[in-house]
Structure formats: C-alpha cells, structure tokens
Amino acid sequence: MRTVNLKEYLENRIRGWLPKSSILTCTHETDKPRWWRPLWIVTVLGIIVSALVLFLSGYVPLERTILGLVLAFLCLGIAYYIRVRPSMKVNRALYILLGISPIGFGLWMVWAVSGIGRWLTDMIGAFPSLIISWVVCLGIGALIGNWIGKRRNYQLPLSP
User: Which of 145, 150, 116, 149 has its CA nearest to residue 133?
Assistant: First the structure.
C-alpha cells in the first residue's frame, strides 16, 4: 500500500482532472505569442477604418458613427482586460453573465411556450408577469452560470 503525503493529496485534490502540463496550473508567467500585439493593433485599426468607410459612404450619420466607435472601443477595452489581466471577480461575473445569456433566456422561452406566462398574465397582469418571469428565469440562469464557474474554479477556457 502506497502512502500519500499531505502535499501530494492536496495538490491532486485541488488540480482535479487537469493534467500536470496544463497551462491553467502553471504558476509562472507564460510568454505571449508573437501575434498577440499585432492582433490588438489590427483590431483597433479595423474598427477605425470600418467606421470611416461607413461614414464616408453616407450610410451612417456622424453621431451614430461616433457612438459606434465609443461602444466598440468600450467592448475592446473589456476584452483586453479580460484576456490580459484576468481576476477571480471578473471571471465570476463572466460566468454569471454567460449563465444568464443562453440558459436564462432559454428558460424564459420555455416559460413563454409552456403556457405558464399566459396563465400568470391572466392572474396578475402583463407587466408584473413579465418582471416575475425575468427574475425567475434569469436568476436561475445566473445561479447555474455561477455553479458552472465554481466547478471550473472560475478559470476561463484558454486563459493564461
């Protein structure tokens, strides 16, 4: 019978099913790939060029072009922050949002198709029924997303 010391036991328990050579378990800083910096530069230039082309072609007015640029750069900043400076809180928020998006809205569609929504609307009215369905379905989606994140130790796929 083989004896296992406490350090090996805890390491195996914490690591779970991940292999030892996994990027997720490395404690040292990994080098960024060669394409990492050009990716962000090309993305910024692509946003700017596409906004200019849409504005100069006359399809989009100036105020909508500026609003689109601001929103695109806001989303780009969030994406950069998530990939470059990952943290447990941000990853947890992402898992909750990812639980709300497909799971919560899927439950909401089942709620609407099953007849529960119509029955509740007849009982209490349209607006309270809508609020209750959103709270229940999206809340369940958020709880499921948090549960999935907790099972994965809030590590995003392919994160450093």
Answer: 116
d(CA 148, CA 145): 5
**Unique residue bearing structure tokens 């999935």:** 148
Find out whether 84 and 55 touch, Cβ atoms under 8 Å: no
Residue 24 belongs to some domain of the structure = no
What value does the CA radius of gyration of the chain take, rounded to a whole number of Å?
A: 23
Which range marks the domain in which residue 141 is found? 87-160
Both tokens of 25, joined, read 């378990």
**pTM of full prediction above 0.85:** no
Do 106 and 158 fall into the same domain?
yes
SS3 content of the chain, % helix, strand, coil (to 5): 75, 0, 25
| Contact yes or no for 154/88 (Cβ under 8 A) | yes
Domain count, the chain: 2
The first and second tokens of residue 61, run together, are 């007015």
pLDDT tens digits in sequence order for the chain, 160 residues long: 566 677 777 666 666 555 555 444 444 455 666 766 788 888 899 999 999 999 999 888 999 999 999 999 998 888 887 777 777 888 888 888 888 888 888 888 888 888 888 888 888 888 888 888 889 988 999 999 999 888 888 877 766 5
